Amino acid sequence: MRTPLLAAALLLSGLCPLQAQTTYKMKPVAIQSRWAKEVSPQNALTAYPRPQLERSNWQNLNGLWEYAITATDEAAPYNFDGQILVPYPLESALSGVKKTLLPEQRLWYRRKIEIKQNAGERTLLHFGAVDWQSKVYLNGKEVGGHTGGYTSFTIDITNAVKNGENILVLKIYDPSDRGIGPSGKQVLNPANIYYTPSSGIWQTVWLEKVPTDYISGLNFTPDIDKQQLNLTVSAPAGYTVEAIASANGKPAGKVKGKSGAPLQLKLENPVLWSPGNPFLYDLSVKLLKGNTVADEVKSYFGMRKVSIAKDEKGVDRIFLNNKPYFNLGTLDQGFWPDGLYTAPTDEALAFDIKAIKAMGFNTIRKHIKVEPDRWYYWADKLGMLVWQDMVSPNHSLPEGAKAAFEQQCKETLAQLHNYPSVTTWVLFNEKWGQFDQQRLTEWIKRSDPSRLVNGHSGEYLYVNEKLRSPSPNAYVSADLTDVHSYPNPMNAIKMPGKARVLGEFGGIGVFIADHQWNTNTAWGYIQEKPGALKSKYAVMNQHLQLLERQGLSASIYTQPFDVEGEQNGLLTYDREVVKIPFAEIRKIHAPLNKDMGAIPAVAAQDADLTEPTAIYSAMLQEYIDGKKDPEFLRKLAMLAVQAGDKDGAALAGADYFAVMKQPYSEDDLRYVMQVTGSTRDTGFSIIRDNMEAIDKAMGARQSAVKMMNLIYQDLIAPAVPENGANPDWGAIYTAVKPYGAPGEEIYLRARTIYLLNKQDKAGFKTVAKEYLDKYGQFVKLDEKKKIEAFMN
């Protein structure tokens, strides 16, 4: 028998056998995009992953790898759990695995690579992004690693490579929202505005052969006023570099100089880049030793300028290319039902930008996520301004979180610097983990003076015209003042030298039957029927026109696509249904976007404007008249949930559950989770009896959280009076005790929060201590701090 230590050594060195290839199959998912069916191990994101530093000699490593999940303290596994399709994250359906990685676990990857190493060349191993912390081994030797889930990293593996077969292994730690690193909208218990995590490899992995001395990076900044591109080529000292720009295949400019030195590539009457005319120059860069070309890369650039200046009326506004330019934008989260953080295909990645442009927007606020390089390439090529959010730190700022956030910001600034589409950096959002705002804002401005800095989007936040977060020192050192206002738009405060922007507004929730991730929720700041959305949205945009006349420079609507529990998108999460036809929404946007340019052709069906309750009522009558086939019952129960008919959902659900056969499929268990709305429903007992299978299919603690919510709804909330009188906690405990750990956990949680709100310190300590002792691992850090502070 092999010891764990020996097994680890065999694994890392490649002496143990790799599992044979198996048939790949995407895991079931509530809804999926049209591109998911195109994904296979042979064509998993095959496009060149780094368009601004391109070579021909590369090898795509996407495809089937082996994976294993172990406990934190376990050695590397000898036998792996199965296969995973890289680069789709572990929790995604497209990975073929769809499992949740817990903070106390580690994720391992392994695959064979055939490499032929030639004299005079080096082999580079590139990772687009791996969430969150990785160690990389080749043939048993640790060759590098990276901390940070959103930016790329490269490892020179030349000295560890063998000619022929090589064994590549990764070890991943990703605690999601329970760690110190930026995790964006990913949480282990997704709900409302927070979503399913994406652990491990989620962008392309690839090999590249380069000369011994090679071009490792390009840094360029356009200067339209001087009609030049400021360029620096990172390469070993002592070389000459030559950069040649071309436009539509014709020479447009040329410069020679030293590697590492600032160069100025002059352009005569440059064509300026804008959303209406996204003109890109091609760029060829050579590394020269005398007349010998040591290395050559291909790239591209756009000539544009973004600034704050006064218009003809003396109002501070956002300018593009020295002219006022209203940034009409939308808040894009970058999630997919089938791939989560990873778009199924490159066409899918481009579709999102095409659809947003086809709706008549000229700006995307990329929200709390950094996309793959090809997303920004498509934004450059199609013509879209990008406000790039920094990925916010852990909101509770545990020790180490600030340093992790600043390192991720530094890498983001460097990685995205060359893309002309990126015009604005957004530092903080709605006080999520806010710290040292002035210092960090000024640091970003020094690091990149060519772009605007939005130091805090939503530092002022209004919901239903009530200010939630006043700030005494708002927008210090920033270029913009930014307000969030839900649902209706309003203007930001006026400050000298700063443009006023509306960083978020809208959030109109509209659910579309058969196109929902979760039929139990249709979250939005307000709810509307499909038929009422267009007029409501049009009125909001008319108010934007009025605000623009009063000095507003930009607006960001929430949001272009539904995302999991949020159904406030203009398109459904699967990108199949547009809730306002493209031509009609472009007409609404036209007064504020006069630079639309060519409109991409995109396919999506228009929403059915029939009253959803009317559809449900007709189906309910069919049920009464005797229609009982399984698919009909499934849909009827889901529509009943959406229509708010709990009794109807329970009836149809119970009839469907009666024809379900054990062992239940993942699809069946997901359905049970969706339509069960009470502890009295038949589905509740199915959830209770299948918790492990549900969590395996849907993620950690999904069954327990569902049960706790229903127990609270049915048994605790009705017994806790709103007038502050003392509830009978003994009777409540008796009622919830039969439900085991979920019943006890929600009881202790509810009682702890109740006593905390009442500031009843005497009774609080004992209950809170028991709650934290038993279930503290599931309590968010900021909430735990509040509880512990009151205990002390």
What features would you describe in this structure?
The protein is of the alpha/beta class. The protein folds into four domains: 4-30 and 54-208, Sandwich (Jelly Rolls), CATH 2.60.120; 217-301, Sandwich (Immunoglobulin-like), CATH 2.60.40; 319-606, Glycosidases (TIM Barrel), CATH 3.20.20.80; 612-791. 28% of the residues lie in helices and 26% in strands. It is built from 18 helices and 36 strands. The strands form nine sheets. A ten-stranded mixed beta sheet has the order 27-26-25-24-23-34-31-30-28-29. Keywords: Glycosidase, Hydrolase, Signal. It comes from Chitinophaga ginsengisegetis.
Question: What would you say about this model in short?
Answer:
It comes from Chitinophaga ginsengisegetis. The chain is an alpha/beta fold and 792 residues long.
Supply database-style keywords:
single chain; about 800 residues; alpha/beta; Jelly Rolls; Immunoglobulin-like; TIM Barrel; 4 domains; ten-stranded mixed sheet; six-stranded antiparallel sheet; 18 helices; globular; disordered N terminus
**Class based on secondary structure composition and strand pairing:** alpha/beta
CATH class of the largest domain: Alpha Beta
CATH-assigned fold name of the largest domain? TIM Barrel
Strand content: 25-35%
Helical content (DSSP H or I, runs of 4+):
25-40%
Q: Main sheet?
A: 10 strands, mixed
| N→C terminal distance | 52 Å
* Low-confidence sequence ranges: 1-10
